[in-house]
Write a structure and sequence with these properties.
The structure is a single chain. With 266 residues, this protein is of the alpha/beta class. The chain has two domains: 27-111 and 228-262, D-Maltodextrin-Binding Protein, domain 2, CATH 3.40.190.10; 114-225, D-Maltodextrin-Binding Protein, domain 2 (3-Layer(aba) Sandwich). Helices cover 36% and strands 26% of the residues. The chain contains nine helices and 16 strands. The protein has helices at residues 2-25, 53-64, 79-84, 99-102, 158-164, 183-191, 202-211, 236-251, 254-262; strands at 30-35, 38-39, 43-46, 49-51, 68-73, 90-91, 105-107, 112-121, 133-136, 142-145, 151-154, 177-180, 197-201, 215-217, 223-227, 230-232. Strands 8, 11, 12, 13, 14 and 15 form a six-stranded mixed sheet that branches. It has a five-stranded mixed sheet with strand order 5-1-6-16-7. Strand 9 and strand 10 (142-145) form a beta hairpin. It is globular, with a radius of gyration of 22 Å.
Length: 266
């Protein structure tokens, strides 16, 4: 009996110690931002430091609301789940607002626009993503996908979501989509001939094409999107602070200046 009581007391003490450790270890003045640092110019690594549009806008937001910014690099597909559970305060990774994502998290006001484009080899026979389809139905929607077409995407991105949809909704079907952990991995698959094209956001696409000879971006957009910051549904206080900070940073030209630094006007 005595041993049992002692064991229970020790277990209770351990739980209390763990709770105190978590509580004391939590940085109340730190804003943790989850991102995937393989998406230039929005977030990428310069040595060991994460830089880019999102990193700078997030730093400006943190300063506005009186917090220190901590950026955590993780897989893109784990960001929303981490925000949901409170592991991260927010997710900022060139993330597009979609109805499906809004079921899991709340989104801030839009801070940038995105465009999905198609990268192909310079000698590709295709001049538009419409060329990947066999034909169109009486409503003008694709009827099917040509044999041999393989689409490379970064997993869990909107490029993945759109491309994996059925052809009648301007996708290419699950069987024709190959998913990679990063956009860079998808581009390497294109270079090695494993995929017909890569569908990815326009600005990262420009960076990848500039860094890899023999590639080009097809004319025209595959999809237009809005980028925003995701926050847990239970954290409306933080969401309001982020939106207030964004409004101020847009009004004083900070957001436009940061974007122009990385994406100069043509």
């Amino acid at each position: 009996m005595t041993r049992k009581i002692l064991a229970l007391a020790l277990a209770a003490l351990m739980l209390l110690s763990a709770a105190l450790f978590v509580s004391c270890g939590k940085k109340e003045d730190t804003l943790t931002m989850a991102t995937n640092a393989a998406f230039p110019p929005y977030e990428y690594k310069d040595g060991s430091k994460i830089v880019g549009i999102d990193a700078e806008i997030a730093a400006a937001i943190a300063e506005k609301i009186g917090m220190k910014l901590e950026i955590i690099d993780t897989e893109f597909g784990s960001i929303i789940g981490g925000v949901q559970t409170g592991k991260y305060d927010m997710g900022m990774a060139g993330m597009t607002v979609t109805d499906e994502r809004k079921e899991s998290v709340n989104f801030s006001e839009t801070y940038a626009k995105g465009v999905q484009v198609v990268i192909v080899p310079e000698n590709s026979e295709y001049t538009s993503f419409e060329d990947f389809y066999t034909g169109y139905d009486d409503k003008g929607n694709p009827a099917g996908v040509k044999d041999g077409i393989k689409i490379g995407v970064q997993q869990d991105t909107t490029g993945d979501i759109y491309a994996s949809d059925e052809p009648v909704k301007w996708g290419f079907g699950e069987a024709n989509v190959l998913r990679y952990k990063t956009g860079a991995d998808a581009v390497q698959a294109l270079i090695s001939g494993k995929v017909t094209c890569v569908i990815i956001d326009n600005e990262p696409a420009k960076s990848f094409v500039a860094a890899n000879s023999g590639l080009k971006i097809l004319d025209g957009a595959y999809a237009d999107e809005d980028y925003a910051i995701c926050v847990a549904k239970t954290n409306t206080e933080l969401l309001n602070k982020i939106n207030d900070a964004l409004a101020a940073l847009k009004a004083d030209g900070t957001v436009d200046a940061i974007i122009a630094k990385y994406i100069p006007a043509d």
